[in-house]
Specification:
8-stranded antiparallel sheet, 14% helix, extended, signal
Length: 153
């Protein structure tokens, strides 16, 4: 079975484009956008307690705080996080799931459990997720779904 040169060149071009897009997606750089508007490309790390810090050019490690950083992207999380004021007034980083006329955000908490649990064995930890929406020209967040039994937001 013989293929013509145009078909082989076309297949090679498609393969090259798909490979380049995949490499670009894997190489997305970590960044933090400060409240001053400056974008800092950096290396991010997460502590054993879940706190995220960034370093620029091997310098001092700076902890990400929602009152100092508007947005950040940590490659391991694969989604940008945005600093937002919740309906209860707390300032938190929310995962930006969808950006458009209506933005969709997620806030998730991991809660420590205790050994013992039902029947005397196992580890009983948990998590809660809160989903918020925000209209494009508004600062207000609206809670649309929660997996928590007690809603503090």
């Amino acid at each position: 079975m013989r293929f013509s040169k145009p078909i082989l060149l076309g297949l090679a071009s498609v393969l090259l484009i798909l490979t380049a897009k995949q490499l670009h997606a894997q190489k997305q750089r970590e960044y933090a956008i400060l409240n001053s508007g400056d974008t800092v490309f950096c290396k991010m790390t997460r502590s054993i307690f879940g706190n995220i810090s960034y370093t620029v050019n091997g310098g001092e490690s700076i902890r990400l705080r929602p009152d100092a950083v508007k947005e950040y992207f940590f490659r391991k999380d694969k989604t940008p996080f945005v600093s937002k004021k919740l309906p209860n007034g707390d300032l938190e980083f929310l995962a930006l799931l969808e950006r458009g006329k209506i933005n969709l955000y997620e806030l998730s908490y991991q809660t420590a459990g205790s050994a013992g649990g039902p029947g005397g064995g196992g580890y009983m930890g948990g998590s809660s997720c809160f989903y918020y929406v925000q209209k494009k020209d508004s600062d207000s967040l609206y809670l649309i779904k929660s997996t928590s039994l007690i809603n503090k937001n």
